[in-house]
Design goal:
There is one protein chain. By secondary structure, the chain is mainly alpha-helical. The chain has four helices and two strands; from the N terminus they run αααββα. It has helices spanning 11-20, 26-36, 39-54, 80-87; strands at residues 62-66, 72-76. It has a two-stranded antiparallel ribbon. α1 (11-20) packs antiparallel against α2 (26-36).
Length: 98
């Protein structure tokens, strides 16, 4: 759910994007970039992509959501309030997330 159009398949734009989030230290960004080249994580990405396709994913953002009662359903798009309602979660805006 990116707001900017950045080619994150390239190392430098991905590193810069991760740093700009302020969620990761420089050391963590280096670890993420190192792990991105490891076969185990590439295989996990392929597996997760196939699972999403098998569940009906057809674009991004696409989410498979399970609520407290165990009901699951897919969502396509970025309307987080529809997802909140389906999950039985009180509506929040992004300023309330930490």
């Amino acid at each position: 759910m990116w707001e900017d159009h950045v080619n994150i398949t390239q190392v430098e734009p991905l590193a810069e994007t991760l740093k700009q989030t302020k969620l990761f230290s420089d050391e963590e960004v280096a670890e993420i970039l190192k792990a991105a080249g490891e076969k185990v994580w590439k295989d996990k990405l392929l597996s997760n992509t196939q699972k999403a396709l098998d569940l009906g994913a057809f674009g991004a953002p696409w989410m498979w959501v399970r609520n407290r009662e165990g009901k699951e359903e897919p969502f396509f798009g970025s309307d987080r309030y529809v997802v909140y309602r389906a999950m039985g979660v009180e509506k929040k805006d992004s300023a309330n997330f930490s």
